Structure formats: structure tokens, C-alpha cells
Amino acid sequence: MGRVLSVNVGLPRDIPWQGKTVHTGIWKAPVSGPRKVRRLNIDGDGQGDLAGHGGEHRAVLVYQHESYQYWRTQLGRTDFTFGQFGENLTVDGLPDAEVCIGDRYRIGSALFEVTQPRVTCYRVGIRMNEPDMAALLVKHGRPGFYFRVLKEGDVEAGDEIALVASGPERMSVSEIDALLYLPGHPREQLQRALRIPALSMGWRRSFEALLTQKDEGGAASGNAGLGPASGPSPAWSGFRSFRVDRMVHESDDVTSLLLAPADGQPVATALPGQFVVLRLGTSSETALMRSYSLSGQPSAAIYRVSVKRERHGTAGTYIDTHLRAGDLVQASAARGSFTLRPGDAPVVLLSAGIGVTPVLAMLHALSAEASTRDVWWLHGTRNGREHAFAAESRELLATLAHHHSYICYSAPQPGDRPKLDFDAEGRLTTQALAEIGIPRDGDFYICGPSSFMSDLTAGLAALGVPPERIHTELFGAGPSISPGIAASPRKAPHLPAGPAGTGPMVSFARSGLNVHWDPRSKTLLELAEACDVPVRWSCRAGVCHTCETGLVAGAVGYQPAPVDAPTEGNVLICCAHPEGDIVIDL
């Protein structure tokens, strides 16, 4: 039998932190008297980041008085007050090692069910004035846990906590937490966890990913449960030599490379939508590494990548000025989970700018199989001079029995012909999609700048498209995903201030920045921040974990981010770090 010592609530507020403004609900304070517990939270309580916190399966956070006593000793502090760890209920009893996922408890007039361990993030470190606190909670095995509210009711300090039903499989909060974060991941334990109906969707997806990783023989390195789906395992590790068979200028600023295996042996046919990593240059000191989506018909004989030359783009400039037909480049095996799903549902391919390349590969695949699916080709670009693959896409669409096309030019030129070259002036928006009558039951594939994808994703959801039918692939550098931190003007990526480092070369693949490792940076994240490279993994010192929304709450501080890596001698490519690809030339 446990007891509630304190009921703690707090609404989100803005907190200054390291020169930034953080919007957070981590500050909780005790309240007296009964409080109504509702399906999503307690009256008077709120969360600042609804992507990583809150929701039906994380409605009420529980932390134990025993852990308070433990941290007082560990940290040598006596200044704790209830709610210090951001919990809603401070309790006497209910240790993580004894409470099991699926256990049901009656407190006051409310009924609760245990759904998952707490996934900590950087904001608990702010609240505790202890930067490593998020990592320490996991390292020391004291995360706390979340309740789902099965029956709304009143709770107050002093209420007894009565166990009314035990969860199936009898797996404790500590066991579930260790199963994800500690090495091993025994198959039978993963299968047990997945048999618990109460387990929240984010944790369920992580355990499913770990089970799949085991079924594939652990071919992918890293912890598959701590990151987004990475697609099928690559056909080979490291790089193979490819010869530039041809170079084709697709538009004023886009060039395609047709790459054939230098040894004449076939390569594994990529799935439509996947990408490869290219190593350009002959010197390990100056080689550039970039990831590019495959843009042609999936083939075992040739890879086609299409590269846009940006104004300050190092790789695009190198391709235009140095690379010639007959030259050799190094390429990884195809990889990635942004791939065309089989089925009979309509296919809606949405792209902007050079984001067209992976969906063009999908269009090639649909054409090659003479698909009878309803195919919608929707693309936005500036004008006809920058409209790459215009003729190619029209020819492919003409081979399909059921097809639709809608092209937007945001800045058409005098020679661009309305209704012939393009359908509408302006950007491709959700309003335009609604007006042309896109099918709500289709599979949607979106690729382009991050704002384009986020706007369309939110717009499609508002139109009633189920989230599981919306698939996105970020093309180019993404914005920082630091939940709760207010937006501020961002500098362009640059070399860090001070003397250049002398360590291994680190390439921020999508920013085109090559930096020698500097021991003044303790982690890759610190080096990225010193260069103003957008960091896409949210929790600066937390714990990597796939959230219920499918986003990743990143954590390099305690548990290394997963690595989906082609390795060859001295090269490691990490695909779950700032900007999607960091290349470390060791």
C-alpha cells in the first residue's frame, strides 16, 4: 500500500536558459485539497512540449519519496521540494522495481494504469540546476513512471494508493527501462513486453524495432529501439567504387550523375525513395561525403543521383567544376525508410525543388510496373529554368492508366506558359491540394524543405488524412528540433571560432561544412553547436527514444545515438545525429 504525499501542478512558462528561452511545464508546485484528474492531465497542470510529454498515455507523472532521499545523498543537496522532478504525484512506496507496466491503482476516486517509464529530457536538468540530471535518472535506474487515467476523479495528498489489478507478464518499470537502454535486449523479454496491452505506443515501437533488428541478425549497428525506422539493412558495408558513366544537366542548377559499378558486378537494386552516400575526391583529407536520393528507375546496373548546385554548396561546386565522365567516386549501398509502399491505394507524390528526386524514383517504379493505382504528381519550383525533370515526369505519367499532375511556379518568368508548363502561380499549399480534390485515402509522400513538409503534413492531417499514410523525407538541412526552445535568428553554419582542430575530419553532410575535430568539444553536439549547424536531435543531455508521435527525443549525453553505418577502414557514417548525416573520417 502506498500513499500520496503531494499533488503537484504547474502551467508552462518561459524560462531563460543559456541565452535561449525555453517554454516548459517542468516547474510543478504542491497544491492543497482535492484536484480533479482528467484524461489528459490534472486540473491546473500542463505540458510545454506536447510532442514529448503529455497525452493519454503520459497524463500523470509519478515519482517516489525514496528517490528523493536517494538523490539528496547522491547530489549532496537538501533544497528539494515536492514537484522538484516535474512529477504530478509524489508518493510514498511504488518503487520502479516493483510497479509493473499494466498495473492498475485506485487513488481517491480516480483509477490509473501504468503505461511506461518516464523518458527524461534536458528540462529536468534546468529545473534541478544539474545539467546531467536527465542522464543520471536513467543511469541510476530511477526514472519514475507514467499513469494513464482510466476513470477521472479527485486525488489529494494523504490518499491511499490501492492496487486493484496486476499487469500481465509482471514486467516492472525498471525491467522495461533496462530492456531498452541497457545492452542485451533478450528476445524472450522483448516478446513479453510486446504482450502487455497497456505499454505505450512509443515504447512498443522501440521494442518492435529491436525485435526486427534481432531477426535480421543484428546487421545494423547501434540500438534500433532508440531511433526512427531506418529501412532494410544496407546490402553492403562501407563503400564501393563507381564510375561516372554520364553527366546530364537537368536544369540550370541540377546535374544528374549516372554511376556504374567500376568492377562491372551488379549492385543490389534500391527501393524507390532510398538514398546513397557518395565520397567525392581522391584525398582522405579533402574528400567530401554527401547523401543523395536516387532519382532514377531502380536498377542493379546503375545508380542515378541528381545534385543541385547551391550558391555556397561545396559538393555541388566540386561536381560541376571537377567531376567528369569516367571519373571514379565511392558510394555506399542504398539505405533509408522513405520508400514506396505496396498496395492499391492512391499514391500522392508531393515535392518542392530538388526534393523531387526520391519521389521521381517512385514515379519511375510505378511506370515500370504499369501500375493501375491512381497517381498524383504535385510539384513546386520557382520557374521553368529551375524545373528539373519536367519532360521526364510528363513522359512517365503518360504511361500510367490513372494519373494527375499539378505544378506550381512561385516566380514564373515571361516565357513560362500557364496551363502548359505550370498550373498555378504560387507555392504548393494545403489549400491548393483541397481545391484540386486529392484523395484522402491515399498514401502521401512528401519531400522538400522542412517548412514545406511541416506545413503540408499539418495541413493533410487537418484534411483528415491519417498520420500513418503521410510519409516525409527531409531534403537539405533541417531546423533545430529542440522542443520548448523559442525560435531565434540562426547564423549560417561556419567554422568554429579559434584555432583549427587537429583531430579527425568531421563533415556535416548537409551543411557542406568540413571541420577537424577539436578536443575542446566534448561531443559531436557541442562541435555542431560551435559551428551553428542545426541540431535535429532534441534533448541535449537526455535519453534517445522514439516518442509517441514518431519524433525522436535525442540523447547523446548518456546513451549513444544509434548508428546506421557503412564502415570501411577509417570511415564511420552516423545517420542519427545533427542534420541526419555526420561523417567522421577517422
Number of helical runs?
12
Weakly predicted, low-confidence segments: 476-481, 536-544, 546-586
Could you tell me the strand content as a percent range? 25-35%
* DSSP E strands, number: 30
Name a few traits of the molecule.
single chain, 586 residues, alpha+beta, 7-stranded mixed β-barrel, 12 helices
In short:
The protein has 586 residues and is of the alpha+beta class. The chain is built from twelve helices and 30 strands.
Task: Explain what you see.
Strand 27 and strand 28 (about 550-555) form a beta hairpin. This protein has a seven-stranded mixed barrel with strand order 1-7-6-10-9-8-12. It has a six-stranded antiparallel beta sheet with strand order 16-15-18-13-14-17, with helices on one face. Strands 22-21-20-19-23-24 form a six-stranded parallel beta sheet, sandwiched between helices. The N and C termini lie far apart (about 55 Å). The protein is built from twelve helices and 30 strands. Helix 5 runs antiparallel to helix 6. It is of the alpha+beta class and about 575 residues long.
